[in-house]
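Good morning N.,

You mentioned wanting to compare the apo and holo forms, so I went ahead and generated the holo version with zinc ion. This is what I fed in:
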Amino acid sequence: MELYETNQLKIYNSLNKSKEIFKPIVEGNVGMYVCGPTVYSNVHLGNVRTFMSFDLVFRYLKQLGYKVRYVRNITDAGHLENDADEGEDRIAKKARLEKIEPMEVVQRYTVDFHETLQKVNNLPPSIEPTATGHIVEQIEIIKDILDKGMAYEVNGSVYFDVLKYNETEHYGILSGRNIEESIHNTRELDGQSEKKNPQDFALWKKAEEKHIMRWPSPWSDGFPGWHLECTAMSTKYLGETFDIHGGGMDLKFPHHECEIAQSKVKNKVNPVNYWMHANMLILNGQKMAKSTGNYILPNEIFTGENNILSKAFSPSATRFFMMQAHYRSVLDFSSDALEASERGYIKLMEALNSLDNIETGKESSINISEWKQRCYDAMNDDFNSPVLIANLFEAVKYINLLVEKKETITAPDFEELKNTMNTFVFDVLGLQNNSEQNACDKLNGVVEMLINMRKEARDNRDWALSDKIRDELASRGIQLKDGKEGTTFSIN
Ligand SMILES: [Zn+2]
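and this is what came out, ligand included:
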């Protein structure tokens, strides 16, 4: 029996604005699509939070025993400035400014994206398709929407006819907007817009002569509209209707609204059963913006090279901080909040490390099965990680009292406590125990100290002591090497 059979998971569905019992289309299987990054710059910390939120969802679904196909795309073409249909492709613009090939931009920032998510211990998705790898599929969808009369061609570009669609369907069903409010925030950069109505959005854009990223199509040499790639890739890998679609709150409109419209015209069904939106991250109470300096890159948190935080924070402490807030709440990132989280994270790891020092007894002073179920209940309630963490800290208190022999636990209960802690801390929350790394840092510090003592001895012409330090270290597998820049060492 799988855990999902005895746990009733509820998900807040943004489409119906309520928590609903989760029932996948195919029992035991979940199809989940999350909008990935546009790879034209280093991944934004707010996006890291979004991907971490869906990593938690992915991990918990797996914990419940579901077989999950998690698809997250890479936007490497066709994402215009201001999300509007006029203006320049972000990747092409970056390539032009840096005088490099657009695919060099894509490669550089895809690597950065993967490295950053790996540092915070996100699991890779099951499939990570790219927009440029699915141009053919996108062209096929445009042909189909044109055939059904819901799009029109102007000068080699194709636009979705939102007003016509809205005659029979509701454009704005997800964001709660009506058609008058649904005007795309289009800046008229190139003079007169070709669109019939400001609500319409591009399915295909004809490339200007200077534009480097272009593909042939029946309408022009050009590139697909951004909204289209997610429809093409989600339905290709998950089917016309799938279980979960996730993304940042800011993608609700127009991006996800457009995805629904495209799918409804092409496949005549609702594409998604549960829409999930992760809330945003602010920095020191303000919106993050490069222009105001209220901005920090994920890597700058880990190295400490920034003017925002008091010191460096490990990826695990940073992840723990993110997990302490529910994914649908706004989260304020600050030095004080991170320091508090770091203390909590260390406390949690110390309790886990001290599990080996516990002796079991004849009875348990707390009900372990009931506590374990409360951990599951927290996660079953729309992935409520802060409530889960509160339950874990209840166990930390108990573990510390057990170490001090002020409480007792039976052997089977102890096994259950240990397994449950490991499951939720490492498998579900995705935290890592850095104690090995910490031990390694300490060893390096001690060797550095001995190198300095040896230098002092040599300065005092105390060759006996200097040789003794070198030989004793060598006998322990630590080789010192004297060079122009000073002494370095290697540990075998
Ligand atoms: Zn998308």
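Confidence is low (pLDDT under 50) at residues 187-191.

Happy to go through it together on a call whenever suits you.

Best,
F.
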